[in-house]
Amino acid sequence: MVDQLPNRGLEAEMLEAMGLNSIDDLFSDVPVHVRMTEDLPLRAPQTEEEIIADARRLLGANVPLGSMSSFVGAGLYRNHVPAAVFQLVTRGEFLTAYTPYQAEVSQGMLQAMWEFQTLISELVGLPVANLSVYDGSSAAAEALTCAVRVHGRKASQSGVVYVSELVPPDRQSVIHNYTQGGGIEVRPLRHTSEGLVDLEALHEAAGACAVYVEQPNPLGLLDAGLLGMKDVLGEHTALIVGVNPVSLGLYEAPGHYGADIVVGEGQPFGSPMTGGGPIYGFFACDTAYMRQMPGRIVGRTVDVDGDTAYCLTLSTREQHIRRHRATSNLCTNETLIALMGAMHMSLLGPEGLRTLAVRNAAALEAVKRALGGIDGLRPVHAGGVHFNEFAVALPASAAACIRDLEADGVLPGFDLGRWSPERSNQLLIAATDQTSQRDIDRLASALAAWCARQGVAA
Questions:
Q1: Boundary residue ending a domain (345, 360, 394)
Q2: What are phi and psi of 455, to 5 degrees?
Q3: Which of 273, 312, 342, 398 could cross-link with 415 by S-S, CB 3.0 to 4.6 Å?
Q4: What is the C-alpha to C-alpha distance for residues 342 and 116, in angstroms, rounded to an integer?
């Protein structure tokens, strides 16, 4: 196989420079039993018609989300995205643009990016926002490392950060990947049995570099205790709040109750669920963190003629002049998807955002009422205030419930046992502006019948 490689002369020259006899020597430290030495098992070349037929066959195995009554949330939500967003984002000025290093030929794209930053800044109540990051999980991880860079020397618990124990394991994994090896210790922030932050544990966290919580939290609970958290933590501990952006149409912006950094998953604005991606994360902060925030910032200024102009104001990536002093290795971001979010927010406006949040909240309340009379179902946090989703305890495993109801065309929610084994009989049920009364009726009927089959009287 090695003999079939092209450019044998150049290959031999490079091998000689490295002191090697063959390409196989490059992989000498890889165990022989895991090396692939045979040809790749590829089929024979296909015609265009055959390739299209295969693609259609594979795509036909997908089940369109709109064909089922879906109550799955857990971080990604099925909100309506106006058709105008898709029409606008496919314009060549946006779709083919990449990194606007040459401001003189990129003014339109730079302005669109600046508008996104401005919208996020106004939404979360903080003065600075960047051009987005990969997703909500990487935004949370970047926020924690940013806080350590700012507070590492002044915090009494140097290099220590606290993360809400309710944060899902996939996000915890991303946080671990960002912090391990960097001298950062991640400790869990305890919550009460009601799903709210344990205030005694919060006092223990005072003096750490940062505390990360979510509002609403991953179980859909809104925690009023967050309003006073900054007073407990003090100025040398960053309060980082991960937020569902749609909820801000109804509830207070975290920047207004002391959050130093606000991050989140932007997918509900502008991006369909599309199998989990592409999506984008947003990152906003107070000015004290600006020089240590990841990614890029577009600024608005005036040119030599006094006209409005836009340029890259801050770019702390390792590819630029920061090099080894870079704040992150965000080699790209999700700017195109973030611009879809900016378009969606612009089309909504303040009143539209409030209407969207009200529709989400009203749909969830309708689900709660419909399920309230079903024997065998018990709300996990009956007295809590929820947004977008809430958890119920089932008489049997949530995985079995999902499997049985899916066969009837209903996706009843997310199995919380995938996050924590002790929650294996708990179902996280989400509702959005796309949840119809017909969907709710189907869910209630299917769950009542399923509970009855578990030996619970209907």
A1: 345
A2: 90, 15
A3: 398
A4: 5
Asked if 333 and 268 sit in the same domain, the reply is yes
Residue 351 resides in a domain: no
Residues 6+ apart with CB under 8 A from 331: 317, 319
DSSP 3-state helix, strand, coil percentages of the chain (rounded to 5)? Answer: 45, 15, 40
pLDDT tens figures, 186-229: 999 999 999 999 988 999 999 999 999 999 999 999 999 999 99
Q: Which uninterrupted H or E stretch holds 253?
A: none
As a whole number of angstroms, the longest Cα–Cα distance in the chain is 79
- Residues, the chain: 458
Radius of gyration of the chain (CA): 25
Whichever domain contains 232, its CATH number is 3.40.640.10
- Check: pTM over 0.85? Answer yes or no: yes
Digit-coded pLDDT (tens) for 328-383: 777 666 788 999 999 999 999 999 999 999 999 999 999 999 999 899 999 999 98
How far is residue 388's CA from residue 80's CA, in Å, rounded to a whole number? 14
- Pull the structure tokens for residue 48: 């265009």
Alpha-carbon gap, residue 345 to 123, rounded angstroms: 10
- Angle formed by the axes of helices 398-406 and 437-453, nearest 10°: 120
Q: What is the pLDDT of residues 377-422, one digit of tens each?
A: 999 999 899 999 999 999 999 999 999 999 989 999 999 999 999 9
Together in a domain, 172 and 48: no
Residues 216 and 341 in one domain: yes
Check: CB of residue 293 under 8 Å from CB of residue 136. no
* Tally of domains in the chain: 3
